[in-house]
Amino acid sequence: MATTGKVVGIISNLVVVKVNGPVSQNEICYIDHEAVKLMAEVIRIGSENAYIQVFESTRGLKTGTPVEFTGHMLEAILGPGILSKNFDGLQHDLDKMEGVFLQKGDYTHPLEVDKNWSFKPLAKVGDEVETGSWLGEVTENWIAHKIMVPFTSKGDFKVTKIVASGDYKIEDTIAVLEDAEGNNHPVSMIQKWPVKVPIKTYKNKPRPAKFLETGIRVIDSFTPIVEGGTGFIPGPFGTGKTVLQHALSKQADADMIVVAACGERANEVVEIFAEFPELDDPRTGRKLMERTTIIANTSNMPVAAREASVYTAMTIAEYYRSMGLKILLLADSTSRWAQALREMSNRMEELPGPDAFPMDLPAIISNFYSRAGFVNLKNGETGSVTFIGTVSPAGGNLKEPVTEATKKAARCFYALSQNRADSKRYPAIDAVESYSKYLEYPEYIDYVSKAISPNWVDNILQARNSLVRGRETYEQINILGDDGVPIEYHEIFWKSEVIDFVILQQDAFDKIDASTPINRQQYMLEKVLTINNTRFNFEHFEEVNPYFKKIINVLKQMNYSEFESEQFKKFEKELEEIINEKAVVETEQL
User: Fold this and answer.
1) Residue 6 annotated as binding?
2) In percent, how much of the chain has pLDDT > 90?
3) Is 386 annotated as a binding residue?
4) Which DSSP symbol is given to 349?
5) Amino acid 266: pLDDT
6) Is 107:36 a contact under the CB 8 Å cutoff?
7) How far is it, in rounded angstroms, from Cα 579 to Cα 33?
8) pTM
9) CA atoms of 49 and 477, how far apart (whole Å)
10) Is 108 annotated for ligand binding?
11) Range of the structural domain that residue 48 is part of
């Protein structure tokens, strides 16, 4: 018999319920408020009271209101039809809802239960299968959506029945599995999984090392992320987080994109809804939305649903990873998620940590980031979830608790600089302050040495060192004046500017420069480092600025030209002539 209870206390979204039976942590319950059922989740259990966070507005709720517990956790409904959808944090289909504002208790099914899908069996009668094994597939947009043995199943099974190729609805039985005790288990195309529990249907989860190409030079060259890796983008308002996420969505080498808008301002989420359907996918030539799912929970929606949205997004990403796909999960912004955790923690009167965030905030963030990763599936295939979150620190303060906690969990740190944004140096990632810990992994170094170039990592480190030296000399020039430092200081600074203008800066709105393949990045980086290693002959510091501006201009024209085209080669020849004007010693090509 289901446990029930009555409301005895209300503190905004936190409701205290006196229960008459057993309840579990994270169990879902419904409050029967004026003939409308409000969904809530158990977040703490006392001796006879359960503390629940309500995923809806509690306005008008009174003590004594009955509550019914369901006996299960918050679950995602997984199956064909998730792609191209807009969900809220509880996976309700926003496109099926009417009106500008969500109505209390207005819940919708996330999938199309009446739609026919063309099913193709992959398993046959008599096959031995286990949790996560592929039984068949349907074509979802252009992705082969695998129908798997439910993740909640345990042990080994034998396929006793599987339907022939044809059209079926998601709730139709497509296979029957027999367990070791001889019990039959019917399987449909959909299944449920608790969002706060990682999906672990893989054989193993090695440390990721395979380079993930994004087409964004400052990321691929200076702060690379790997397939199944983790990164985060902190930065103040106006530094280009949204454009950077759009670029990653369009250009990253991923089969599917999951966007979690967890608590962003409503107007920013409207931009996502308006712009994503219009974005063209350069990888497929179709619309980007065809391989994208959006989980939206704006800042004017209930606080508790913000937390649910990131877990729902991660569960969907893990589900598709189990099909052997490469998933890119983008969360914007995890700061709002952390603020939701802070609000609930404060309402429960827990001991506060720095800036009143929960004491266990670093552990919560680390556990969530750990769900990303590269996996080897049991059938020999591989899949990955690459997670990149954005953080919106108040006033651009990168020392605040959410940024600091995320730094400990994520392997890549992409610091957006207000100064770079103000000077229109986009993307505004500060290559000196940012880092990628994957550059230290022997597995990654070995991979890129074979896939890109044996000198790739050494070249990156040399270019980074040039940027650091350039910044140091710029500060000295500012203090001592142009004529107060040796000419070599001006040369060092302008060589770093060549790297900045040609490699770090990129035009997201230019057809060619918006995305740079890794072979072109390697070529241009070596070209720039050749200039960096060349000694020039200047008689006066006033010669340095115009000379290097000419070099930068020609190199930027090369960036805007088709790689190795006649125009590209023409600018390359012009560059050689300019270099020969002042070069003292010709250095060998790196």
Assistant:
1) no
2) 77
3) no
4) T
5) 57
6) no
7) 77
8) 0.94
9) 67
10) no
11) 4-73
pLDDT digits (tens, 9 = 90+) for 94-139: 888 776 556 777 788 899 999 999 999 999 999 999 999 999 999 9
What pLDDT score does 588 carry?
46
Q: Is 21 annotated as a binding residue?
A: no
pLDDT digits 0-9 by tens, 66-76: 999 999 999 99
pLDDT of residue 39: 92
Question: Residue 571 corresponds to which tokens in the numbers above?
Answer: 């600018």
Q: Is 373 annotated as a binding residue?
A: no
Residues 394 and 465 grouped into a single domain:
no
Task: Evaluate whether residue 205 is within a structural domain.
Answer: no
Q: Are residues 412 and 462 both part of a single domain? A: no
Residue 459 shares a structural domain with residue 428: no
Q: Are 55 and 318 in contact (CB under 8 A)?
A: no
Question: CA–CA separation, 552 vs 543, rounded Å?
Answer: 15
Same domain, yes or no, for 17 and 143? Answer: no
What residue spans of 322-382 are helical by DSSP H? 334-347, 361-369
- For the chain, residues with pLDDT lower than 50 are 587-590
* CA-to-CA dists, residue 66 to 4, 5, 33, 40, 198, angstroms: 7, 6, 8, 13, 32
Q: Distance between CA atoms of 87 and 94, rounded to whole angstroms?
A: 5
Angle, in degrees to the nearest 10, between helices 518-532 and 544-559: 170
Same domain assignment for residues 49 and 153: no
442 is in an annotated binding site: no
What was the pLDDT predicted at 587? 46
181 contacts: CB under 8 Å, gap ≥ 6: none
Residue 242 annotated as lining a ligand binding site: yes
User: Would you state the structure tokens that stand for residue 409, as one six-digit string?
Assistant: 């969990």
Mark which of 414, 440, 466 sits at the end of a domain. Answer: 440
Q: Annotation-wise, does 132 bind a ligand?
A: no
SS3 187: strand
Tokens of 81: 């039809």
State how many domains the chain has: 4
Calpha distance 296→305 (Å, rounded): 10
DSSP 298: -
Query: Can you say whether the dihedral through the CA atoms of 364, 366, 369, 372 is positive or negative?
Result: negative
Residues 6+ apart with CB under 8 A from 9: 15, 16, 63
Q: Could you tell me if 346 and 355 are in contact, meaning their C-beta atoms sit under 8 angstroms apart?
A: no
- Indicate the residue type of 48: E
